[in-house]
Specification:
By secondary structure, this protein is α+β, with helices and mostly antiparallel strands. The chain contains ten helices and 23 strands. A hairpin with a 2-residue loop joins β1 (about 1-5) and β2 (about 5-10). The radius of gyration is 26 Å and the shape is globular.
Length: about 425
């Protein structure tokens, strides 16, 4: 039995019951029979009083009101059954919720410690905007006289124009019609920008952030009394989220990170992350040597990416940066000077899960306008929602944005991996199905 907030949670090997205390008086005590075959509440005599044993069967969830303090046993007339039913996935979610929330708090602390130690400024920008961006593959959710952001990118780049040099943000973002094991319409992004830096520098940030969060969460999950064992399994790490090398881990944590496991498969997070060009990935795993020609057939490009390339990345024993995307797949990234047919865009994959989307940022206002106007025409042609051009963002680029690198990382997905959970719903307090 354990107290979680104002609820007294009673557990045995088979059943999970939530009790709430109503009053205090002398009456028979009720307690669980740990390991009993029936999984029901049993009656314990106290001070000569008696009370009827609740009729409960294996697998039922009983909710009892609580006012005041609880204990391992509680008086029979102190409880009132206000609901009963079969233990459901929702009940299982409730049992995991406390440890997941604490792990999320550790992760947030680790992110802030990493960036604060490097002189980044944490910022806030609007979540409801008049112009949500024109990425051809992302739709925004409408809000009163505007839309919810799909990313804080436009406003953060305007801060770069205003003189900010290193900024980060932990924010809620929303995207329409996204729901599945790795997708929720509302989710948490960690987004950051470095002025006068490029893609490689932001990749290094990303490696450090992933290690820092995994170390913090895995160590917490392994700590006695956290109750996280049902949610997290595997290697641990440094939970401080501060100090040390760029990974935030000491030598013992480094050794454990090298033995990180997710869903039974081992991955080495201590070694430098792999880097693989998109061109080479399609050649190696999909038998497509000509990326430029393939990118002209959008349907085939995405079919091979999902069916051939991403499953192959899942089999790698290390995280891998996929970089050098076709220009048509990177509307906000600058062209790569060494390969003008591709853009300075990267994504990080761990256990086959895409964690982030980073750029060497495009700061050419005329080129950005041209790309957005082309996206508008394509959206109209496809019957997709059409959004206004963000003229304030384009005006800021015209004023002059310094060369910069940036990244947007999905914190929910990273937390899912760190806690060895099969879906992001298990690391969210209120996923869509239970909102």
């Amino acid at each position: 039995m354990a107290i979680q907030g104002d609820a007294l949670v009673i557990e045995d090997a088979q059943a999970s019951l939530t009790a709430r205390l109503v009053s205090s008086s002398s009456a028979p005590l009720l307690s669980t029979r740990a390991g009993s075959s029936s999984g029901s509440l049993s009656e314990t005599r106290s001070r000569g009083s008696s009370a009827a044993r609740p009729e409960l069967s294996l697998g039922q969830l009983v909710i009892l009101r609580l006012v005041g303090q609880g204990a391992d046993c509680f008086l029979a007339d102190q409880v009132e059954v206000v609901g009963a039913g079969r233990l459901t996935p929702g009940g299982e979610h409730a049992r995991r919720l406390g440890p997941a929330l604490k792990a999320r708090a550790r992760a947030l602390g680790a992110v802030r410690a990493l960036f604060d130690a490097q002189g980044f400024l944490e910022v806030e920008t609007p979540v409801r905007v008049p112009c949500p961006g024109l990425d051809l593959y992302v739709d925004a959710l409408p809000a009163h006289e505007g839309w919810l952001i799909t990313s804080p990118e436009h406003h953060m780049k305007r801060l770069l124009v205003a003189g900010a040099r290193r900024i980060y943000q932990i924010t809620r973002a929303s995207r329409a019609e996204e729901l599945g094991p790795l997708h929720e319409p509302e989710f948490t992004l960690v987004e950051w920008y470095r002025a006068y830096a490029g893609m490689s520098c932001v990749m290094a940030d990303t490696e450090a952030l992933v290690r820092r969060v995994v170390a913090a969460v895995r160590t917490f999950a392994e700590s006695p009394g956290t109750g996280a064992a049902a949610t997290a399994r595997g290697a641990g790490g440094d939970s401080s989220g501060a100090g040390g090398d760029s990974s935030g881990a000491d030598s013992d944590s480094q050794a454990r990170l090298s033995d990180f496991t997710y869903q039974g498969r081992r991955y080495d997070l201590a070694a430098p992350f792999l880097r693989l060009s998109v061109r080479e990935a399609f050649r190696r795993y999909a038998g497509e040597p000509d990326l430029s020609r393939l990118a002209q057939d959008e349907d085939r490009y995405f079919d091979l990416l999902v069916s051939q390339v991403e499953p192959a990345l899942r089999e790698l024993s290390q995280p891998v940066f996929l970089y050098g995307y076709p220009l048509s797949q990177a509307s906000l990234a600058r062209p790569d000077p060494s390969d003008p047919e591709t853009a300075e865009r990267f994504e990080l994959y761990l256990a086959g899960v895409e964690l982030c989307n980073g750029f060497g940022e495009l700061n050419d206002a005329a080129e950005q306008r041209r790309r957005y106007e082309a996206a508008l025409r394509e959206r109209r042609a496809r019957g997709m929602p059409v959004y206004p051009l963000d003229e304030r963002f384009l005006a800021a680029l015209e004023e002059g944005m310094p060369p910069a690198g940036g990244n947007a990382l999905g914190l929910d997905r990273l937390l899912m991996l760190a806690l060895d959970a099969p879906a992001i719903t298990q690391v969210l307090a209120f996923p869509t199905a239970r909102a």
